[in-house]
Amino acid sequence: MRFLYFLFYFCLGLTLIRYREWFQRVSGNFAWAEKYLGIGGTYHAYLLAGLAMCFLSIMYLTGTLDGFLMATFGRFIPNQGS
Question: Which residues contact 53 (CB under 8 A, 6 or more apart)?
Fold first, then answer.
């Protein structure tokens, strides 16, 4: 099942990267992306989102995503054990 999730999200990330121009035409420009990422920031935002999706799906497949999330966001989750 883990492999199917990986395959779905990895392909979704690649699709987002490949067709980012189409996504931009459909959704329009993101004001925050144009402001913080410069001219063409919407394209870069889609590219970064697709790359992150691909990277996180690889981490999920290899089992390193759980440790990464607990190391970065674990302090925001209250300890239920004690």
Answer: 9, 10, 12, 13, 16
Model pLDDT for residues 17-68, shown as the tens digit of each residue: 999 999 999 999 999 999 999 998 999 999 999 999 999 999 999 999 988 9
- Output the DSSP codes for 18-43: HTHHHHHHHH---HHHHHHH-TTHHH
User: What is the C-alpha separation between 38 and 47, in angstroms, rounded?
Assistant: 14
Report whether 27 contacts 20 (CB < 8 A). no
The owner of tokens 């699709």 is 15
3-state SS class at 16: helix
Q: Collapsing DSSP states into helix, strand and coil, what is residue 80? A: coil
Which residue, chain included where needed, has tokens 């992150």? 52
